[in-house]
């Protein structure tokens, strides 16, 4: 596995732990279909939450949230609908969140959580 992929997996695990610590129940990670992948699917009260995780080891190439383009957000909304259609979990609300994980070598990771993007 490439270093970038290892960092990404670590970031997703840290993000899932962060959400759980916030009282948000993670129900699935790395869900895939032909149209793409959802990093984290979770439940926050009566809301289905789809969280996109972006992990970086530094800010050399910009903040992780900068990778969330309008096109990416639109695709995530589509995938969230597809996930909901394939699962029996029915909730009245749906929200798309972004989680940035900055994990420099030798330092504690920093996690930022944006609720309700796009």
Tell me what you see in this structure.
The chain is an alpha+beta fold and 118 residues long. The protein has a single domain, classed as Trna Endonuclease, Chain: A, domain 1, CATH 3.40.1350. Strands 1-2-3-4-5 form a 5-stranded mixed β-sheet, with helices on both faces. The longest helix has 19 residues. The mean pLDDT is 95.
Compile the SSE list and pairings.
Blueprint: H1 3-21, E1 25-33, E2 36-44, E3 47-56, H2 70-86, E4 93-102, E5 110-114
Parallel strand pairs: 3-4
Antiparallel strand pairs: 1-2, 2-3, 4-5
Strand order in the largest sheet? 1-2-3-4-5
Helix content: 25-40%
Quick one: biggest sheet?
5 strands, mixed
The rounded Rg comes to 14 Å
Number of helices: 2
- What percent of residues are in strands? 35-45%
CATH topology: Trna Endonuclease, Chain: A, domain 1
Secondary-structure element pattern, one letter each: HEEEHEE
CATH architecture: 3-Layer(aba) Sandwich
InterPro entries: Restrct_endonuc-II-like, tRNA_endonuc-like_dom_sf, UPF0102_YraN-like
Protein name: UPF0102 protein Q9R02_00215
Organism: Arthrobacter horti
Family: Belongs to the UPF0102 family.
